[in-house]
Sequence to fold (458 residues):
Amino acid sequence: MTTATERRFEKMKPFGAGEVPHRLDSRDLPPGPRWPTLLQSIALVRFRHQFVPAMHKRYGDVFTVRVMPKGSALVLFTRPEHAKEIFAGDPEKFHAGKGNAILGPIMGEHSLLLQDSAEHKRARKLLMPAFNGAALRGYQSVVAQLAKEEVDRWTPGRPFRSLDRMNALTLEVILRVVFGVTDASTLARLRPLVNRTVDVSPAVLLGWGYPFLQKFGPWKATVENQRGLDDVMYAEIAARRAAPDLAERTDVLSRLLQVGGDGTVEGEAPLADEELRDQLVTLLLAGHETTATALAWTLYELGRDGVQLARARDAAARGDDDHLEAVLKESMRLHPVIPMVVRHLMEPATIGGRALPRGANVGPSILIGHSRDDNFPEPQRFRPERFLEGEVVTNTWIPFGGGVRRCIGAGFSLMEGVAVLREVLSRYDVHLPPKAADRPKVRNITSVPRHGARILVR
Fold:
């Protein structure tokens, strides 16, 4: 019998959405490398931190990369005025869902990240109440308590991979705040399933476009892991529907289950299990590893800069959350977790004075935008003060995207990051052990510290 997981993998072919019937003519596009599509795809997905800067240096502020499976055109823009035009583009013409199609087999057709037009507007409307200011304030105590429990387990003077600890912490936050799961056995089942979902190699991502691979090796393992995750999630949804205290619960799943009838969003029908599953997995994956990686890089940077560490510790002692948020933002600037923001052109469009055809994928390069010295003086320097002194211009710092598609969890991510930094820095100094230099490594669509951002605390 075909399972819901298998139906999703069959339906959500990552390279099927938004295709045009022919390969776009290079004469209609900005210049770019003429390598075979496979090589360009590998370079972009696996070696992006070397490839994208090299293409920017060779071809200038706008260039085209050809990606699998049929040489689809990805036009990368690198200036803030370009980002502004793309983010302000008509969402009926600039489809973000199709730009994120590679995530379809995991996130599902109802995912906020994969929907466009009216469907996206509806999904965002449903999710917004769970991420407004009042909701965030309600989550703070849970985050603070989990951060305290995590830091209590640290051993002073013993080096450890901060990425591993931050991943464990942010996963726990998501499972408690989004899923509302507190049962120990359910948590124990979910943790490894989620970790295997996140730890997907670029080869598996590219291979999702070829269904026959799902019978072999890592692609088969991905489907089997997804089947296990789906089983646990659908069981939890069913149990929550029957919970006698549903109306009193404030986690995201419980809020979404109350949509319709006496729910929190008027005029909406109750959500089906499949839609709930897709939105929850989206929040889980989008809000877990990204925040963990930003925190790991932040601790790493503080560990190698005694002056900034002292300032951050003083801010934690004084309750200066604005300074701690600036520290987190500067880490996200210096070490982008996501490389680009992509839109699919449903109609011809002009961006930066360049006429582009329907069917092209376009997007600002976060990697380049965050490292331009005309956007950020001394771009390689870790200097959080730039976010407190009015230096950061709109559309230069874009880790959460922009426009109507700006990440719905941006406020939650920053709140969580500040709470964790406050807990760490109010108790410890952070240092780097010998030979702790680190650099980015690509994992799924994100970039993480290759060596785990090793630190020690005292």
